[in-house]
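Reply to dn_fold:

You asked what the input looked like. This is it:
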Amino acid sequence: MVLGVLDTSDEITARIIEKKLDDLIRQKRNQGFYTSSDIALVRVTDHFPKDGIVYAINNVPFVCKLNDEFREVAEDYILKRRDRLDELSDFNEQVELSKAIHKEADPITPSSTQYRISTHYCLNGVVSSHQQGDFDSSPIVIIDPFSAHENDDNILAVRGEDTYFENQLQLSDKAIVLVEESSLDEILKENIDPNITIIPYRGDRDIAAQWVLVGMMGIVPEIIGKDYIINSKTSQMITDFIRSKNYPMDKHCFSQSYQEDDEKSLKLWKMYSQKFYTYLFSQFGDVEPHQSLIDKLSDPFKFPRERKVEILEEIVKKIGVDNYINIVKQYNQSIDEQIRAGTYPTNNEILSGAPFGYSSDYSDSKKTTK
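and this is what came back:
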């Protein structure tokens, strides 16, 4: 079911939500405690749930943009991030511009991936970007009442900033999926579970999520930090609820699965870097003379980050910025088209030897010339 567009620039709706939020906070504080009905799972993602299921990213075709040397070169060298920030003296304006540049860099950052056997959610708020993950440009927000999952047998941990489940999560019929309006038509081409409520939004994603939490679910939204929920008038009641239910509260970074996942992520990052560098050099001649450099650049431990950035900047300077941008876009487009066609492998399949990355079957095979 698809509802009407939620426009976060609508001032009348904004005032209604603000009033309802004040009433909700007062009501919850008078209540003095939270039940599972006062809590929602919130997941920001690039991927619409398939058949009403949120799969762990090890078992689906999954690509993302990392905060690696490719993004740093895109931001600082191509988009001239430092120069543009130096023009502003106001700190808040610098923060906003930095976020905008980060998003601008997405199309000119080669696709990579991450390995996880778990699916992750925040409680009552939208995840914040940090060094381990960039979520600012993800256009989809999945919101599902925690009451529908409080007794799931695959809960690994419950925390305000990171509640995670092993493998997949079957969404309840109360789930709401926010989709950026411009992405709706493409998503509706897929086999959508009719039990899921879809709300297209226009404007600020995080505000749209807050409006759904307040206006449709009667839940007080929270600000999510990297390691905890930012202290608020209601945040402690979430923590008290978790403790009262004796849920495991281990931080994901201390779990056994995290270490195992990261070992596989490192292998995949190396494979993706090597795949892109090989494609990059192939556009301008024989790859073989550059193989040793490609191997070193792709290895997470051969060069420090600063040296990788320097070398990549020299490559971009040599071949030309426009050529580099076109190469990255063509590389990413090929992968995106394979994912849409259902022919791209999962991370488990890639680790088992399945071919991945750029494919001339789905992209313009013309080589860029200098």
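Confidence is low (pLDDT under 50) at residues 365-370.
Hope that clears it up.
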